[in-house]
Design goal:
Elements lengths: L2 H16 L4 H9 L4 H14 L4 H15 L4 H10 L4 H14 L2 H16 L5 H13 L4 H14 L11
Amino acid sequence: MNSGEKKLYGRALRFLARKNHSRLELRRKLVRSSPSEPVDKILDLLEEKGFLNDQVFALERALLVRERRLWGNFRVSQDLKSLGIDAKMIDQVLGQVNQKKGETESLQEAIELWVNRSGQPQTPRPLKKLYDRCIRLGYAPHLVRQQLAPYFDQIDWSREDENGR
């Protein structure tokens, strides 16, 4: 390994020491200051030594966003795709994540958190806000509707909300 590659290897290790990265994510960071050919060589070396592993990264990332951000499968999948994770690997990771913390359980937690902060929806408008929030978090519409069914049943659909809507 020449001195330029050693510096690049050191930079890559410093990035990995701060947080785990996907191969694509680390490649993007390293290519900013170095040609791509030595970067790919360094990434291959890091994978051989076990310092860079997309499977481990994807599982850690998916568990983190499921637990902390309460993301649904769709949003987790989109996040992992943007970080260069293969679609087959994403399916495997989602299966593992759903075993540890199911999507329905996470959605129920997100709904409970919203209700605790904003109050139980009494009119259609706040219920729609809650529904939209759940969709943005990456949950399937049918699952959201299923979990919000008790709220839909309690709404007085003929009553206007405080803003006259």
